[in-house]
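Lecture 7, part 2: worked example. A protein chain together with zinc ion.
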Amino acid sequence: VKRVVIGGATHGNEWIGAWLVERWLTHPDEVTRASFETLPLLCNPAALAERTRYIDQDLNRSFDGPSNAEGAPLESRRAAEILRQLGPNGRTPADVVLDLHTTTANMGLTYILTNRDPFNLRMAAWVKQHVPNLKVYGWIDDTLPRRSFSSIVARGATIEVGPTANNVVRGDLLLGTKSIVAACLDFVEAHNQADPATRARVELELFSHLSVQDYPRDADGRLTAFIHPEFQDRDYQPLEHGDPIFMTLDGQTIGYQGRETVYPVFINEAAYYEKGIAFSLTEKQLLNV
Ligand SMILES: [Zn+2]
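Predicted complex, written out as structure tokens:
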């Protein structure tokens, strides 16, 4: 690995990553390791300046359709610009991309994998050993991978911490994000030094993506229910058949209809109302990596 890119403000209203990247742009020694270059990057400075998630469209769903065309969405042009610099055929290609996000859901410190590249599984396991309360979520389907910043190259991760409001910096989550990034950089350094510790077989608990669940809606597409109070904040807790998931405004409880025990994530994520996602479902797997 010659170059690690750390992205912040891919969403301009998620300030923990933005703050850390701005800090590291002026204090690069804090993310420097001996065997590779670390490049902090503010991914969507225009959205950050406007304190908004994006200007025209979600940058983190734009990397499969970058465009330089005049009149193209700002984020399509920004994705093209980032790929020209850091993509596989770019001027200074990234080997590993870490992308820093926050969520309004109660996901604690979450490490998102978008593929099962052995390097990524081992980096996840390494980070979990150094950050014990870390959760590893394998979002391996067609909705995020290939369109997200962290998947412009095969190696990398999206870091997702919460719960926090947007445009807020919570100290506990900022420090947690820092510890995850430090562990990732230490892993890359150990990997480059051929440290056998990076190849020791370990078990990795992985929450593997199954599906997304939309809100109940009426014929016009308006939401007819909200996340049930007993379900709110229960990210990564087992969800069984019949457990409450939604409540309507007239007080009716809607239960989970699936037969398998699943583990929800992104419960009531603010940015996902527009995407038609009330929460996502995962299954728990134990991998030997
Ligand atoms: Zn985000």
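The first strand starts at residue 3 and ends at 8. The chain has five helices and twelve strands. Keep this in mind for problem set question 3.
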